[in-house]
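Reopening this one. Same input as before:
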Amino acid sequence: MSFWRSVYTVIDESDVVIEIIDSRMPELSRNSQIKEIVDRGGKDFIIVFNKIDLIPGRYLDKLKKENKGSFFISVKKGKGIKELRLKLQMTSKKSKFPRLRVGFVGYPNVGKSSIVNALIRRASAKVAKKAGTTRGIQWISFSNLKILDSPGVIPIDEWDEIKLALINVKDPGKLKDVEKAALAIIEIFVKSGSKIYGLKGEDSYELFNEIAIKKGHLLKKGEIDEQRAAASIVRDWQNGKLKLQ
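Same output, byte for byte:
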């Protein structure tokens, strides 16, 4: 199913549309056109920033200040789920329908299915570290809610390799230039003034070399195994092992 076909289906069949965004990279994992479509359809729209356990408090404070009315969640830490569930249940009581239809949209691996499972307190929606686990749109009933979980898809015009690596759509082993993706990740830490693997610096490439040495990604002659080091960095980012500080 194409990205926009998936989005339109969710919006058409839902009373409330929730867009899930990765807190580490809100601009990259957000699609501004979705809100415009939801508004035109006259549906309620909620933005949820997920994975807040992977960003420092100062970043979270900034996100909250700039996105009032949104919800901030960490499924891993159990934060924000109760508030979102309460909001949906209160909205449902005001609805004219027996069950409020709630649709989730977002790019792959932003955590849609994990949030759905946390909301309904059971593992009904499939969850995995690989993109594309939710193969088709599925309805899940819970209390006075009817939840629609949709597959994460990327618009064709956004198939940029670095973006695909950062939002965990493409496995590092399948990237044409995994080193460039790794450097883009390191640059996020450099710009935020955060340490990465306990290291800090202002030059992304120098940090890349230091990381490779620290992780022992070296060839027989002591040279840096750039491919292996880069793939390791991208994989750690995608698996949530790298946290902004």
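So the earlier flakiness isn't reproducible anymore. For the record, Confidence is low (pLDDT under 50) at residues 125-135.
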